[in-house]
Design brief:
11 helices, 307 residues, alpha+beta, 4-stranded antiparallel sheet, Endonuclease I-creI, 15% strand, 10 strands, 2 domains, 58% helix
């Protein structure tokens, strides 16, 4: 079972109030039902989602719903649950703000002003058109897929109204409203009261963030070591130039000590070199002091090359 399926099944365990049930059904019927003049057909591959839709329709509208179970044999055998509604069709669609005067109308955020209604609407949208990648196998990604850009833009607007930013793109002949932010996806899972899924998501997120931090630190360490080695080799070349041209006597004793130890330890950092010199000689020096002596060496070489 995928993470997305586990999340949806956990969401179905949340018992909404009447206002939330209507908002959730509004999204489900708008985005996932076949709407005809005298019949509404809802198809689901998930038994728990089908049961939730069936229960909510019975509780809100008190209607008879026909249930058809079919076996689908494409790739693997699985059951498909079909709900057929032939009672109060016009009343249901108008009550859920999907139809007006017998015609389908655009979704309007003014119909769902309370945050609880908006969350319920988004919950119904996720159950029918949404999916979330398993954070352990890929990047963070939540998406809702629609047939029209109007629907995709509406869900983006609904998300923004509860301070969740999303983007819309076209993919093939469909439109997708998606979120890439791990923090926003986590907030949404929490918003849907899916505690077990939230703990799983956050555990993976913490692990991945820690792993990325370690990798960044390792990369920085490698880069710093490569920089130190390159600098050391350049300084060795400069020291050899001074030795070959008998320029050492033009330097003070402390600078000579620093160059001597650099020659012995070409791959040491300035801090390491300072510690070694401080331990092995009477000259106590720090990182900035080491740098100061190499500046002296560089200036001497520049002066002699101008002559």
């Amino acid at each position: 079972m995928t993470f997305s399926t586990r999340l949806k099944e956990e969401i179905t365990e949340y018992n909404s109030n009447l206002m939330e049930k209507r908002a959730e059904l509004s999204a489900i019927l708008r985005y996932d039902a076949k709407l005809e003049k005298e019949k509404i057909t809802i198809t689901s591959e998930n038994a728990k989602i089908a049961r939730r839709i069936y229960t909510y329709l019975k509780e809100v509208f008190g209607i008879h719903i026909k249930i058809i179970v079919r076996n689908q044999k494409r790739f693997r055998i699985k059951q498909i649950y079909i709900l057929e509604i032939k009672e109060k069709v016009s009343y249901i669609l108008e009550s859920l703000y999907i139809y007006e005067n017998g015609k389908k109308i655009k979704a309007n955020e003014n119909y769902f002003e309370a945050d609880e209604e908006k969350i319920a609407y988004l919950r119904g949208t996720l159950l029918t058109t949404g999916s979330i990648n398993d954070p352990s196998t890929s990047g963070y990604h939540l998406e809702f897929v629609f047939l029209t850009k109007t629907d995709a833009d509406f869900i983006k607007k609904m998300l923004k109204s509860i301070k969740m930013d999303a983007k819309v793109i076209k993919r093939g002949n469909r439109y997708m409203t998606y979120i890439k932010s791990a923090e926003v996806i986590s907030d949404m899972i929490k918003m849907f009261n899916a505690v077990n899924s939230l703990f799983y998501f956050e555990d993976i997120r913490i692990y991945r963030d820690h792993k990325n931090m370690v990798n960044r630190l390792n990369n920085c360490e490698i880069a710093n070591q490569e920089k130190t080695t390159k600098t050391g080799m350049q300084q060795i070349e400069s020291i050899e130039y001074i030795m070959q041209n008998n320029l050492m006597d033009l330097l003070d004793e402390h600078t000579k000590i620093v160059l001597e130890y650099r020659y012995k330890y070409p791959e040491s950092s300035y801090s390491e070199l300072a510690d070694i010199i401080s331990l092995e000689t009477d000259y106590k020096i720090g990182k900035s002091g080491i740098n100061h002596h190499f500046i002296k060496m560089k200036k001497l070489i520049e002066q002699t090359k101008k002559l």
